[in-house]
Design a protein that fits this description.
It contains 6 helices and 7 strands, in the order βαβαββααβαββα. By secondary structure, it is α/β, with parallel strands linked by helices. The longest helix is centred in the last third of the chain and has 25 residues, at about 165-185. Strand 1, helix 1 (about 10-25) and strand 2 (about 30-35) form a beta-alpha-beta unit. The chain has a single domain (about 1-185), classed as Rossmann fold. Bound molecules: flavin mononucleotide.
Length: about 190
């Protein structure tokens, strides 16, 4: 499961590449959810049924743009809506990983990944690092390790981030799906 938020479509495009990579692993069933579409908790703090796919997933890859040096407000709203799930540790031992897209080469993206990984740790999830080595041609050109980082210019999402970032995203998605398959096999 890839759960993302995107204000202007760039992070959404990266999310689709992450899904593509994850789907390339035999047996992996991968779905994509825009967290802006998820309704918030009711008065009893319980979450509506739309959250079920997240609760049932073996892994959740989180993604959002970096806004003002941290997770976007939409993604933070999603994080805060998981309070009742945290209370019962409902996501304990699911695999987790994260990605962020921003305009700057640094853009303080690391802080976004730190926030996501702490969020996963609060849920007692098992964090998978980026794991795609830097290669000529721009693979992992951000030199990111905690999670996937991509960079988009001020142009439409069909043009940016560049193809090498999308290829890094596919490899990252594949890595998380492979790690999840190993984890699920080992648990069985
Ligand atoms: C409110 C706001 C804050 C932003 N803050 C940052 C930032 O801290 N660092 C950065 O590199 N880019 C920043 N940007 C640029 C976005 O990260 C960039 O445009 C990104 O591609 C947007 O992704 P999206 O299309 O998925 O929303 C900001 C953009 C907005 C709208």
């Amino acid at each position: 499961m890839v759960a993302y938020q995107s204000g202007f479509g760039h992070t959404a495009a990266v999310a689709r590449s992450v899904v593509e990579g994850a789907k390339s692993v035999p047996g992996a069933e991968v779905t994509l959810i825009d967290v802006d579409t998820l309704p918030g908790p009711g008065p009893d703090r319980a979450l509506p049924d739309a959250w079920m796919p997240l609760n049932e997933a073996d892994a959740i890859i989180f993604g959002c743009p970096t806004y003002m040096g941290t997770v976007s407000a939409g993604f933070k709203r999603f994080m805060d809506h998981t309070g009742a799930l945290w209370f019962t540790q409902a996501w304990k031992d699911k695999m987790a990983a994260g990605f962020t897209n921003a305009a700057g080469l640094s853009g303080d993206k690391l802080n976004t990944l730190v926030a996501m990984s702490l969020f996963a740790a609060q849920h007692s999830m098992v964090w998978v690092s980026q794991g795609v080595f830097m290669e000529e041609g721009g693979i992992n050109r951000m030199g990111a390790w905690l999670g996937l980082m991509t960079q988009a210019d001020n142009a439409p999402p069909e043009q940016t981030p560049p193809p090498e970032d999308h290829e890094t995203a596919r490899r990252f998605g594949r890595r998380v799906a492979e790690a999840t398959a190993r984890w699920v096999r080992g648990r069985a």
